[in-house]
TrEMBL record:
Residues 435-510 form the AMP-binding enzyme C-terminal domain. The lineage of its organism: Bacteria, Bacillati, Actinomycetota, Actinomycetes, Micromonosporales. Belongs to the ATP-dependent AMP-binding enzyme family. InterPro entries: AMP-bd_C (IPR025110), AMP-bd_C_sf (IPR045851), AMP-binding_CS (IPR020845), AMP-dep_synth/lig_dom (IPR000873), ANL_N_sf (IPR042099). This is Acyl-CoA synthetase. Keywords: Ligase.
Length: 521
């Protein structure tokens, strides 16, 4: 990435403002010695703005960058001296959004250990599988998960919140940490909506490039106050934390997402930015907006597609502040849509940011024409390093297969049609469930909808639609079918229309298709 672009972007976002010389030197030295991992970003923020509030959570904990760094260092020293954690080990983190999660991740990295971010929605059996496959030495977990972790192997040290504080208090005083012999990696578990989660090794940035790619298109500024509503164990929530530390922002965290509490906090903490997943926006739209409105300038979402007209409805209420990032655990980011693009095309995934290449390829690896659906391939400097099982992803000319299907319009806007394995063939016709979902989501009676493919003895597969209606609303299955028939081809009409109270989702808001398919087992 070219230096003039980096310098111009950092200047626009307030990162090149003058500061006390000794602090600027300390900041740069922290990055030189500790790199661009989360631990390095925390160190540089503490060096430049030690007294700035780093984290505020709903339980009243308020910590400055210096306090957060000191607690993380003390935890790291105790993990090494009391539990034997060293470079190359793996530390699992099973926590909701609060300062303890950050301390555990940073502590692992300070020792050169890998931090495995564990989805809080995993069952006890899945946790056991993760502990075995990832070779966990330690699992740091919230107290609410104590019963769920009881079945883990005895050799996995379990650190609950009380033990977490005891380890911080028991740290050997005066002992200085040095950069480890190897960089600690972050391992993110894939969502596992259709099967068991896989561990994906995230690369450590090697400079300002990844940060600049994001903040060039999403106008986040130095010293923002940012609510991270997306779970930090998810790629998007973790990226939000990395960006926030790089910007020396004040981060507001809640352990659980509650729409009313979130709106209250946005106003009370005067948050000018929020990171969320699309289903959270849907929940916020179901709550009466507060007066005064939150002073939001940026609402950045990722993790799943924006359904129907959610983008325009949200901006009508909260202003043109919405930014939609399309990406994945494997490719980090592929494209970003800003308010102007979402106004013009509410379901678009936008355009690739600076330094990212995107191609739509057919089955033979050849580019398709504008408007044609093909496989989405992405290239940037933050492509994942492979799954911890040793398996990789198909790549072509430095571009990685996302596993999604999509198309580019004549203006270069990307539209994602869904997972390649979600597309069904019904009676010889290719059908994309996401197209039907977007249409049904526009019905005013519908709160949320999911459309999936199910086996059919005559056509091979057919569509089934699952609808959760708004309170007090009713719909007739035939009316839903007729509505779809009016706008789409006959083979896109769902023959099964099932009404449910709510859609089963994982902790990141993605619909669990395997749970819906049980209706037809």
């Amino acid at each position: 990435m070219d230096l003039p672009f980096i310098a111009a972007t950092l200047t626009r976002r307030g990162l090149l403002t003058p500061g006390r010389p000794i602090r600027v030197v300390s900041q740069l030295n922290a990055l030189r010695r500790w790199g661009w991992s989360l631990a390095g970003e925390l160190r540089q923020a503490a060096a430049r703005d030690p007294g700035r509030v780093a984290v505020v959570d709903e339980r009243g904990a308020t910590m400055t960058y210096q306090e957060l760094l000191e607690r993380s260092e003390r935890l790291a020293r105790s993990l090494r001296s009391h539990l034997g954690v060293q470079a190359g080990d793996r530390v699992g983190v099973l926590c909701r959004n609060h300062h303890g999660l950050i301390e555990a991740i940073v502590a692992a990295m300070l020792l050169g250990a890998d931090a495995v971010l564990v989805n809080t929605g995993l069952s006890a059996a899945q946790l056991g599988t993760v502990a075995e496959e990832q070779g966990l030495r330690v699992l740091v977990h919230d107290g609410e998960f104590t019963e769920r972790v009881l079945g883990l192997p005895a050799e996995v040290h379990r650190v609950d919140e009380r033990r977490h504080e005891e380890l911080i208090a028991a740290a050997v005083p005066g002992e200085q940490l040095q950069p480890p012999e190897r960089d600690g990696r972050t391992i993110v578990l894939t969502s596992g909506t259709t099967g068991a989660p896989k561990g994906a090794r995230r690369p450590t940035p090697h400079g300002f490039g990844p940060l600049v790619s994001i903040i060039d298109r999403i106008p986040l500024h130095a010293r923002n106050t940012t609510m991270i509503a997306a779970p930090i164990f998810h790629t998007w929530g973790y990226a939000a934390l990395q960006v926030s530390f790089a910007l020396r922002a004040t981060v507001v965290l809640h352990r659980r997402f509650d729409p009313a509490a979130t709106l209250t906090a946005l106003v009370a903490q005067r948050c000018d930015a929020m990171f969320a997943v699309p289903v959270m926006l849907q929940r916020l739209m179901e709550v009466e907006p507060p007066l005064p409105r939150p002073p939001l300038k940026v609402v950045a979402v990722s993790g799943s597609a924006l359904p129907g007209n959610l983008a325009t409805a949200f901006m009508d209420r909260y202003g043109d502040v919405l930014y939609n990032l399309y990406g994945s655990t494997e490719v980090s980011w592929a494209s970003i849509a800003g308010p102007r693009e979402l106004r013009a095309a509410p379901t678009t995934a936008g355009r690739p940011p600076h330094g990212t290449r995107l191609a739509i390829l057919d089955e033979n690896g050849r580019p398709v024409r504008d408007g044609e659906v093909g496989r989405i391939f992405v290239g940037n400097e933050m492509l994942f390093e492979g799954y911890t099982s040793g398996v990789g992803r198909e790549s072509r000319d430095g571009l990685l297969d996302t596993g999604d299907l999509g198309r580019l319009d004549a203006d270069g806007l990307l539209f994602v049609d869904g997972r390649a394995d979600d597309m069904i063939v019904s009676g010889g016709e290719n059908v994309f469930p996401s197209e039907v979902e977007d249409l049904i989501a526009r019905l005013p009676q519908v709160r949320e909808v999911a459309v999936i493919g199910v086996p059919d003895p005559d056509y091979g597969q057919r569509l089934a639609a699952f609808l959760a209606l708004r309170a007090g609303e009713t719909l007739d299955p035939d009316a839903v079918r007729e509505y779809v028939r009016r706008y789409l081809a006959r083979f896109s009409v769902p023959r099964d229309v099932v009404f449910v109270k709510y859609l089963p989702r994982n902790a990141t808001g993605k619909v669990l298709s395997r749970e819906l398919r049980r209706y037809f087992d």
